[in-house]
Amino acid sequence: MSDNVTAINWYPGHMTKARRMMQEDIKLIDVVIELLDARVPMSSRNPDIDELAKNKKRMVLLNKADLADESVTNRWTEYFKGLGYEVVTLDSRTQNKMKSVLSSIMETCKEKIERDRKRGIINRPVRAMVVGIPNVGKSTFINSFAKKAVTKTGNKPGVTKGKQWIRLNKDVELLDTPGILWPKFEDRQVGVKLALIGSINDEILNIEELALDLIDRLRSNYPGIIKTRYDIEEDGANHEVLERIAVRRGAIKKGNEIDYEKAANLVIDEYRAGKLGRITLERPQV
Question: Which helix H or strand E contains 144, and what residues bound it?
Answer without folding.
Answer: helix 138-146
